[in-house]
């Protein structure tokens, strides 16, 4: 009987104009009929609202719900909860419901793109099967990190985070073929074809999402009405960061953070997480800090990738990847998601490339350096920032060396195939490490960074005197790879035979080039790579391959990134260019040892005349552009022993110019 009534009223196609709860759960329905079967504004009322018999209330509730499903009237959002409630009160629990009640679970699916972790899809788990024809891109609206971005926040693409595709599936996962004909999972894929200028504070920010079902859905069993309440996976949090420029907390920032367990990020599953919380962080001892001259013990969090088919009888490479200072954290997942580096290194493509170059795979280690560390009661906020702008290092760098030695003992690592990769602070650190152990790394891939000499770390600068890390012969070597005594402080000399592929923005790393040219008559091959909205990985690959194919008296190559790029986005392009990895895995320690260093292990001396070309410019005064500081022009045949690179201090205007000496400052 009920079905007959519903069929009859559907045939006259009633529209629901409004409904609301009144007095003791009674419901008012205002029906506007396109048929003469009922008067246009039939009301069932009493002095206290509408009181209907149970049977009539069931019929009218179902009627309203089905009408809403057909016309998706604006009032439907407000009506849906009441209609579904009335039906459920009547016992028809499975026929009409709302999105709020029908969606039992929501999961965000992400991956690591060139610019870090990124939402790719939202998976809604419904309590019933839904035909594929019942959903489309206009069924839902979405709020995610991508949709908060402005066009000026992007370096490539448009429409970040917008809904791109909606389909059903019989499994809670994306499907390249577009899903199944029916299923209880609705997959909402969003646009990921864009690149930002920088990574946000956390991967959890990139994984938040809120989805609102805007239209009714005809399920295989019943109707799922829209809801005005979004289905979300996040909480609102306050972030207060540390500003190294001022030494004080930054102003509070407010973000949506995805709840733990509400998302997964593809590409980092193979990493083991060694954290402070789970007690598996690496315990390093007796680590010297050049800031205070003291030795410290600390626990170093890190992520480790070991190929699934690891065999101790086979031979593997080892790759050290270090993050930048913008992602300092004790959480290893941050270093895995702030750029595509770690994800790429653990990918099948990279591992296959290693196999093509004679390895059985590559083990990847990614230390996680927190900004502050609870060293002891007297030092609850010990600063661990590693590579400082006065060319000194924190004790965290020594902890990394100990971790590397631990891994080379634990796994079957080819000492000829150990690689270093890092950006900004991380790139500075691996370059500093390269001088501490001559030809230890087979090749380096530093981005957005530089390093230099400082023979006088004890010279008081900006009110502070630093300390020189002792060469103990174990952590920091006293001899080069051929057994000759060396001074690791002469960084410009020590790395002159290394395999290095630099990727920097314009004027970011010119000192070593002009010194090599002036002192040794050597020109480092470099190529400018213009980056804009039309730049593709194919174009970038061609540029890198062209550069590394050029004749070279050293193993050093330099790519200068220009155009739509900044210090913070340079590594997005670098790790989005597979040709960089092709070059990296072809390099071996043996090629470095077979190459002579430049004859720079002799005292520095000035040339008779200062060169004033663009490469020699160190700085230009913003207020008075005529005031230019140049890198000193070295005399041909002289070395870099005793030469000091320029020194700056975060949060201060204090500086020491290129080539400074203690006597020149007295």
Question: What percentage of residues falls in helices of 4 or more residues?
Answer: 10-25%
> How many beta-strand elements?
36
The biggest beta sheet is recorded as: 9 strands, mixed
Q: Would you state the CATH class of the largest domain?
A: Alpha Beta
Corresponding CATH superfamily of the largest domain? Alpha/Beta hydrolase fold, catalytic domain
Q: How much strand content do the residues show?
A: 25-35%
What number is the mean pLDDT?
88
Shape: elongated
Q: How much is the radius of gyration in Å?
A: 32 Å
Enumerate how many helices there are, as a single number: 16
Structural class comes to alpha/beta
Keywords: Membrane, Signal, Transmembrane, Transmembrane helix
InterPro entries: AB_hydrolase_fold (IPR029058), EstA_Ig-like_N (IPR041172), Esterase-like (IPR000801), Plant_Biomass_Hydrol_Est (IPR050955)
Protein name: Esterase Ig-like N-terminal domain-containing protein
Organism: Dialister succinatiphilus YIT 11850
Description:
It is a single chain. With 666 residues, the protein is an alpha/beta fold. The protein is built from 16 helices and 36 strands. The chain has 3 domains: 92 residues, no CATH class; 144 residues, Immunoglobulin-like, CATH 2.60.40; 327 residues, Rossmann fold, CATH 3.40.50.1820. The strands form 12 sheets. A 9-stranded mixed β-sheet has the order 20-23-25-24-28-29-30-32-31, sandwiched between helices. A 5-stranded mixed β-sheet has the order 8-9-5-4-19. Strands 3-13-12 form a 3-stranded mixed β-sheet. The longest helix is centred in the first third of the chain and has 18 residues. The termini are far apart.
């Amino acid at each position: 009987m009920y079905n007959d009534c519903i069929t009859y009223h559907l045939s006259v196609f009633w529209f629901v104009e409004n409904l609301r709860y009144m007095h003791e759960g009674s419901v008012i329905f205002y029906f506007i009929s396109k048929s003469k079967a009922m008067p246009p504004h039939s009301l069932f009322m009493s002095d206290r609202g509408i009181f209907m018999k149970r049977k009539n209330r069931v019929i009218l509730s179902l009627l309203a719900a089905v009408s809403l499903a057909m016309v998706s009237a604006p009032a439907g959002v407000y009506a849906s909860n009441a209609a579904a409630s009335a039906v459920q009160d009547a016992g028809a629990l499975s026929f009409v419901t709302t999105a709020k009640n029908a969606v039992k679970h929501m999961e965000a699916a992400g991956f690591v793109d060139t610019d870090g972790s990124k939402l790719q899809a939202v998976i809604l788990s419904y309590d019933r099967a839904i035909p594929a024809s019942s959903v489309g891109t206009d069924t839902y609206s979405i709020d995610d990190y991508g949709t908060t971005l402005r066009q000026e926040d992007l370096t490539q693409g448009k429409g970040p985070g917008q809904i791109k595709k909606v389909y059903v599936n019989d499994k809670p996962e994306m499907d390249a073929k577009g899903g199944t004909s029916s299923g209880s999972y609705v997959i909402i894929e969003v646009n990921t074809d864009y690149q930002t200028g920088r990574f946000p504070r956390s991967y959890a920010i990139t994984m938040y999402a809120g989805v609102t079902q805007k239209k009714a859905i005809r399920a295989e069993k019943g109707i799922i009405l829209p809801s005005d309440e979004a289905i979300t996976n996040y909480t609102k949090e306050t972030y207060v960061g540390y500003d190294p420029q001022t030494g004080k907390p930054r102003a509070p920032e407010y973000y949506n953070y995805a709840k733990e367990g509400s998302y997964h990020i593809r590409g980092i599953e193979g990493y083991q997480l060694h954290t402070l919380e789970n007690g598996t962080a690496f315990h390093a001892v007796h680590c010297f800090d050049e800031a205070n001259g003291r030795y410290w013990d600390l626990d170093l969090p890190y992520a480790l990738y070991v190929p699934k088919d690891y065999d101790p009888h086979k031979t593997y490479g080892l790759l050290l990847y270090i993050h930048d200072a913008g992602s300092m954290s004790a959480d290893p997942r941050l270093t895995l998601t702030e750029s595509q580096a770690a994800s790429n290194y653990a990918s099948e493509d990279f591992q296959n490339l290693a196999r093509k170059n004679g390895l059985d795979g590559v083990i990847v280690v990614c230390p996680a350096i927190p900004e502050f560390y609870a060293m002891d009661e007297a030092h609850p906020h010990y600063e661990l920032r590693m590579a400082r702008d006065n060319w000194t290092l924190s004790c965290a760098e020594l902890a990394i060396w100990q971790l590397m030695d631990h891994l080379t003992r634990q796994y079957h690592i080819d000492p000829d195939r150990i690689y270093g990769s890092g950006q900004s602070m991380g790139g500075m650190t691996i370059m500093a490490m390269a001088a501490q152990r001559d030809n230890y790394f087979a090749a380096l891939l530093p981005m957005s960074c530089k390093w230099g000499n400082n023979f006088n770390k004890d010279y008081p600068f900006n009110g502070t005197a630093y300390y020189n890390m002792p060469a103990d012969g174990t952590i920091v070597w006293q001899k080069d790879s051929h057994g000759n005594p060396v001074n690791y402080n002469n960084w410009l000399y020590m790395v002159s035979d290394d395999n290095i592929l630099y990727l920097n923005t314009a004027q970011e790393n010119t000192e070593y080039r002009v010194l090599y040219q002036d002192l040794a008559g050597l020109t480092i091959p470099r190529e400018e790579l213009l980056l804009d909205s039309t730049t593709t990985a194919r174009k970038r690959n061609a540029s890198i391959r062209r550069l590394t194919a050029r004749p070279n008296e050293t193993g050093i190559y330099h790519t200068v990134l220009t155009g739509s790029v900044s210090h913070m986005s340079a590594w997005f392009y670098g790790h989005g260019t597979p040709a960089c990895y092709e070059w990296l895995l072809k390099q071996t320690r043996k090629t470095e040892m077979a190459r002579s260093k430049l004859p720079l292990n002799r005292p520095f001396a000035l040339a008779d005349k200062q060169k004033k070309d663009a490469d020699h410019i160190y700085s230009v005064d913003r207020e008075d552009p005529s005031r230019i500081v140049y890198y000193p022009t070295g005399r041909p045949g002289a070395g870099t022993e005793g030469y000091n690179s320029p020194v700056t201090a975060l949060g201060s205007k204090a500086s020491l110019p290129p080539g400074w000496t203690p006597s020149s400052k007295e």
